[in-house]
Amino acid sequence: MKKTSKYNIYALFLGLLICTLVYISYKGYKTTNPTIEIHYEENQSSEIEKISLFGEQKQYVAIDFKNPEQGTSNISVSQNYVARVIYKQRDDEQSNEYQIDTGESVKVTLYGLNSEGAKVKELDLLAIIQKANLDGMITDVNAITYSGKDYLYIKLKTGDVDSSTHLFEIDSEQFTVNITLEKNSFYMTSVFSNAFELTNVNTLVRKYNLFVNSFELTVIDGKAVNLGKVNLPLVQPEIAKTLENGGKIYVRPLTEDFGSWFNTVGYWFATEGQNFIDAYAEDTSTGERTQIESYLDYENWIANHSEEINKVDPKDVFY
Length: 319
Known about the structure:
- This protein has helices spanning about 1-30, 125-130, 195-200, 200-205, 230-235, 235-245, 260-270, 295-305, 305-310; strands at about 40-45, 50-55, 60-65, 75, 80-90, 105-110, 120-125, 135-145, 150-155, 165-170, 175, 185, 210-215, 215-220, 250, 280, 290.
- By secondary structure, the protein is α+β, with helices and mostly antiparallel strands.
- The protein folds into 3 domains: about 1-35; about 75-185; about 195-310, no CATH class.
- A hairpin with a 5-residue loop joins strand 6 and strand 7.
């Protein structure tokens, strides 16, 4: 009995020792080989509730959103399409910043402006990128108008300073890699405008919680306010309503040129009954101000003050 008891004690001790060694080994393995927690971030704008066209040539696109407080930045418009983009990108410590990771996606929903804003096409851009044997992080997707056709403009980041641009023609679904577009050869609605910046038009429009880009009128934060004393609600009440509900207005660039859009904005936000907003352009060297009552006035002024453009647009990329 004594021998058996002694043997049992040794066996128990040996078992505990083995368990301890196994536990220590497992902890060491977990420390040097931690479980990778995969995490994705989804970046998307509010869902579109309604798309409406206004103007004699249906040149104004009004977009109402279901939940505008979610953001409206991933929306763009070309001559014939509205694009809504949803990005799903991996952002944990083990993700490859400049490569396409498994599980990532960039989904584009297209709405046709010639079919009353109906949803006409859904695309998986990452699949298109991979089919073209490209890799990288998609940082920018915009519907644009180029050479009379509708495209998705895709910017792909491949390094800290390296990037490339590509075009996907919406109708033919043809993909063109590594293309450089010259300024004024294409229309992107969200590009800044020198004319609105070098005059005080945008400063005046900001009073209504709005901002004007080259072919876009957007709410800065929340909803448009205090529109009751300007022309807009009188001449385009539905457009005013869209802005007051947090929506956005775009211009179809082949239907209304930039000069006409500048004049339209000047009229919409003039005090009720007036023909143009109380605008001026300032020579920043002398402080001299010149009244601006039309896009032609601006063109005449900038022809004699071309140096002012370098102060707001040194890279010459704005309209």
